[in-house]
Amino acid sequence: MVGTGLILGVLAVLLAWPVPVVLVRARWPARSPALALVLWQAIALSGGMCMIGALLAFGLAPAGHDLVSASTAVLASVGGGIDPGSTLGVLSVFALCAAVLLGGHLLLTLGLTWRRISQRRRAHRDALRLLSRPVTRDGPESDNRMRDGTVRDNTIVVDHPTPLAYCLPGGTKSVTVLSDGLLQALEPGELDAVLAHERAHLSQHHHLLLLAFAAWRSSLPWLPTSRLALGAVTDLVEMLADDEALHTVNRATLVRAIAIVGGASAAADGTSAVDAAGTSDDGPGAETTGPVVGTDPVVRVDGVEADAMATPRRVTPARVTRLLRPQAPIGALPRAAVGLLSLLLVVAPVALLA
């Protein structure tokens, strides 16, 4: 068990620092963003299991040679009224307590992050009810610029000059928010591109993926790679949404839409329509930042994203380059290798402990 703990500890260190740094610097994720997202999830999940597993292995080492037998022996001694400290030793008991605390901390942070995000979304949705109007075929002239194919009941418009568009997830209450400035700045085809991009975020449930990485960032803020992972995953979901938009419009139209919205938002002050109207109530320690480019505004609590979808929608060089100079996805053999690596990362900690 001590050897297992050492191996898991080494894996935890590798997955906490060098591996994410190498992946962030790699160029292939822009060619296959969905596969890169799978690998990021495997790294995050395996890293957590390795940290907890290493502590469990060190803690249970005096009681057995594998997780099942050692755990059974410890539970039997506790049931028999024997002090675990006398059987395992002080250091082993400390390692077991640390494993339980770390696992509880990760799960509790995930739950609290979900609760905080849900509350903020409800408040945001309530504010939008007061500030927005639904998009209708017979509405104002700016609304009529939207073709019939893009008119949806879950699309609303806010009166704000800055071009912005973002999605607010909420199950059946999910909405896509547009501004008057966006409707005025874009041609119908470009507007179709923006709407297709936002609807892709909702249909592919990117908010759930970002929720997990936002919780990881919040639970381990001292870990630099948790910040790198959140930024990388945010960029990858933007690329996936761009790819989905390309099924609706051509590449040139999408690039123009990104350039217009990104340039206009960067020149503006970067506040959302809700905040500009003075109705945002983020509470102590919260702030809204911008610019808003492609999706919803950024809401941070104590420096950490408070909404899984409220992360910076940056028009990164990699995102623009892949649209201007498209490349084929990585080959079948590299795809299989990455898929196998992702599977091994998840299975390895469990197999080692068993």
Molecular structure report:
There is one protein chain. 63% of the residues lie in helices and 7% in strands. It is of the alpha+beta class. The protein has 2 domains: 1-88 and 329-354, no CATH class; 116-315, no CATH class. The strands form 2 sheets. Strands 1-2-4-3 form a 4-stranded mixed beta sheet, with helices on both faces. It has a 3-stranded antiparallel beta sheet with strand order 5-6-7. Strand 5 (286-289) and strand 6 (298-301) form a beta hairpin. The longest helix is centred in the first third of the chain and has 42 residues, at 90-131. The model is unreliable at 137-151 and 269-306 (pLDDT under 50).
Mean pLDDT score, rounded? 81
Largest sheet composition = 4 strands, mixed
The total domain count is 2
Query: N- to C-terminal separation?
Result: 10 Å
Which H/E pattern describes the elements? HHHHHHEHEEEHHHHHHEEEHH
Poorly predicted regions: 137-151, 269-306
Biggest β-sheet: strands ordered side by side in the sheet: 1-2-4-3
Query: Which descriptor suits the 3D outline?
Result: elongated
The amount of beta strand, in percent, is 5-15%
